[in-house]
C-alpha cells in the first residue's frame, strides 16, 4: 500500500535570508534616487535651469501624471491575473531598461534657441514617459512586499529594509546632486545635469536589478480569473486599505510641498546657498534612518497602527511649530530634523499595515486583490506628487516668484515659506487626526516575538 505524500510545509521565515532582504532594500534605494530627484529638484530644474515659467511647470507636472490613471491599474490587474511565482518579477525585469532611458531624457535640457512651446512639449512628453515607466516597474516592486512572504515578522523586516534603502537613496541624491552637477558641468548646470544623469542611471539600474535578480515570489494572490469589476469592488470594500491609502495620499501631498519648496526656501527666505538645501535634505534623511531603526521595537511594543497614527500627528505638529518660529536656518533645520525622525518611525509601520490589510481583509467575496491594491496605492501617491507639484507651482506663481531671479519680494518669500512648512503641517495633521483615527486592522507585528508557526500561504 502506497503511503500518501507528505504535506508540503509552508515557507518559513528562514527561507527569506538576509541577502534577499538587503536586495529588496537596495531596490527602493534606486527608486528613491529618482523619486528624490523628481521631488526635490524637478521643479527647480524646470524653472531655474530650463527657465520655464512657473505656471507652465505646474501644467506640465499635472498633465504628465494623467497617463498613470490608466497605467497603474492595468499593471495591478495584470499582476493579479498572472500565475503564482510569475506575477510581479517579469514586469520588474522587463521594464528596467526603458525606465533608465526615460530618466536621462527627462533631465536633459533642450537648446535655449528652440521656441519655449517646443521645449515645453518635448520636456513634458519625456516626463510623461518617465511617469509611465516608473509606474510599471515601481508598482511591480511594491507588490513584492506581499509576494515574498506572508509572515508578518518578515514583512516588517522587508518594510524596514525598504525604508532604510529609500532613506539612503534620498540621502545620496540630496547631498550629491547640485555639487556633482556643478563639478561635472564646470559651472554650466545644463551640461552638468545631463552628465550627472548618465551616472545616476548606471547606479539606479544596478540597485533595481538586485531585487529583480535575487528576490523570489512565494505567495499567490486570490484574483484568479475574477472580472476586473469584482477585483475593484473587493478592494473598495477594504476599509483598512482605504484609510491607509488616504493617509498616504495626504502625507505625500504634504511632502511634495515641503521638498519642492525647500530649495526656494533656503535660497530666498533663509538666505543661504542652494547647496545648503542638499545638506538639510541629507540631515533629514539621516533622521529618517534613525526613525526606521526605532520603528521595529516601537511596533512590537505598541502595534503598527498606534505608531503610525501618533507618528503622523507628531510630524505635522513639528512642522507647524517650525513655521511659527522665526525663519532662521538653525530653527528651521531643527524642525526638519525632528520631522524626519517622525517620518522614519511611521514608514515601516505604514507599509507593513498595507501589506497586512490587503492579505487579510477582502470583500464579501473573499478576494484579496494584492496587485490592484498596491497599484492604486502607488497611483494615489504619485498623483499626490504631481498634484502637489502643480499646486506648489501655482502658489509660487500667485505669490510672485520670478524664475531665475536673485532676489524675491516679501510676498513671494511668504508664499515660499508657507508652501514649505505650513501646508505640509496641515496635511500631516489631517491625515493623523482624521483619516487614521478610525483605522482598525489586526496588529501585523504580533508574530515578531511569537514562537508559533508562520501562517500558510
TrEMBL record:
Keyword entries, A-Z: Membrane, Transmembrane, Transmembrane helix
Top-level taxonomic group: Bacteria
InterPro entries in the cross-refs: MFS_2, MFS_trans_sf
Entry GO MF terms: symporter activity
Residue ranges of the TM segments: 21-44, 56-79, 91-110, 116-143, 164-185, 191-210, 244-264, 276-299, 306-325, 331-354, 383-402, 414-436
Pfam family, one: MFS_2
Gene Ontology, cellular component aspect: plasma membrane
GO-annotated biological processes: carbohydrate transport
Family: Belongs to the sodium:galactoside symporter (TC 2.A.2) family.
Protein name as catalogued: MFS transporter
Organism phylogeny: Bacteria, Pseudomonadati, Pseudomonadota, Alphaproteobacteria, Acetobacterales
Amino acid at each position: 500500500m502506497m503511503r500518501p505524500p507528505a504535506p508540503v510545509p509552508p515557507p518559513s521565515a528562514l527561507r527569506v535570508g538576509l541577502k534577499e532582504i538587503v536586495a529588496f532594500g537596495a531596490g527602493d534605494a534606486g527608486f528613491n534616487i529618482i523619486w528624490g530627484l523628481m521631488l526635490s529638484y524637478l521643479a527647480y530644474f524646470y524653472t531655474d535651469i530650463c527657465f520655464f515659467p512657473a505656471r507652465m511647470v505646474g501644467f506640465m507636472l499635472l498633465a504628465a501624471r494623467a497617463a498613470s490613471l490608466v497605467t497603474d491599474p492595468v499593471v495591478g490587474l495584470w499582476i493579479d491575473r498572472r500565475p503564482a511565482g510569475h506575477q510581479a518579477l517579469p514586469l520588474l525585469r522587463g521594464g528596467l531598461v526603458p525606465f533608465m532611458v526615460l530618466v536621462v531624457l527627462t533631465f536633459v535640457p533642450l537648446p535655449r534657441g528652440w521656441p519655449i512651446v517646443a521645449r515645453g512639449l518635448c520636456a513634458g512628453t519625456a516626463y510623461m514617459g518617465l511617469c509611465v515607466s516608473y509606474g510599471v516597474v515601481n508598482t511591480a516592486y511594491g507588490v513584492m512586499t506581499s509576494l515574498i512572504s506572508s509572515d508578518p515578522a518578515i514583512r516588517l523586516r522587508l518594510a524596514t529594509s525598504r525604508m532604510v534603502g529609500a532613506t539612503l537613496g534620498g540621502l545620496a541624491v540630496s547631498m550629491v546632486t547640485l555639487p556633482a552637477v556643478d563639478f561635472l558641468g564646470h559651472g554650466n548646470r545644463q551640461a552638468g545635469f545631463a552628465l550627472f544623469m548618465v551616472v545616476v542611471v548606471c547606479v539606479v539600474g544596478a540597485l533595481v536589478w538586485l531585487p529583480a535578480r535575487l528576490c523570489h515570489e512565494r505567495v499567490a494572490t486570490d484574483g484568479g480569473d475574477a472580472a476586473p469589476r469584482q477585483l475593484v469592488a473587493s478592494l473598495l470594500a477594504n476599509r483598512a486599505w482605504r484609510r491607509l491609502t488616504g493617509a498616504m495620499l495626504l502625507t505625500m501631498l504634504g511632502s511634495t510641498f515641503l521638498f519642492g519648496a525647500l530649495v526656494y526656501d533656503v535660497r530666498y527666505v533663509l538666505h543661504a546657498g542652494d547647496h545648503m538645501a542638499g545638506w538639510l535634505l541629507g540631515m533629514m534623511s539621516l533622521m529618517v534612518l534613525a526613525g526606521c531603526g526605532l520603528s521595529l521595537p516601537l511596533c512590537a511594543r505598541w502595534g503598527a497602527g498606534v505608531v503610525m497614527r501618533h507618528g503622523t500627528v507628531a510630524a505635522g505638529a513639528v512642522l507647524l511649530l517650525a513655521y511659527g518660529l522665526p525663519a532662521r536656518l538653525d530653527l528651521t533645520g531643527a524642525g526638519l530634523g525632528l520631522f524626519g525622525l517622525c517620518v522614519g518611525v511611521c514608514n515601516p509601520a505604514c507599509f507593513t499595515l498595507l501589506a497586512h490589510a490587503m492579505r487579510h481583509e477582502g470583500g464579501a467575496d473573499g478576494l484579496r486583490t494584492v496587485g490592484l491594491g498596491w497599484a492604486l496605492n502607488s497611483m494615489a501617491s504619485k498623483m499626490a506628487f504631481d498634484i502637489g507639484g502643480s499646486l506648489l507651482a501655482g502658489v509660487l506663481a500667485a505669490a510672485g516668484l520670478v524664475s531665475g531671479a536673485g532676489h524675491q519680494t516679501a510676498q513671494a518669500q511668504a508664499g515660499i515659506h508657507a508652501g514649505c512648512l505650513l501646508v505640509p503641517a496641515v496635511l500631516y495633521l489631517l491625515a493623523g487626526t482624521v483619516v487614521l483615527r478610525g483605522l482598525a486592522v489586526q496588529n501585523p507585528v504580533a508574530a515578531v516575538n511569537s514562537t508559533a508557526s508562520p501562517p500558510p500561504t
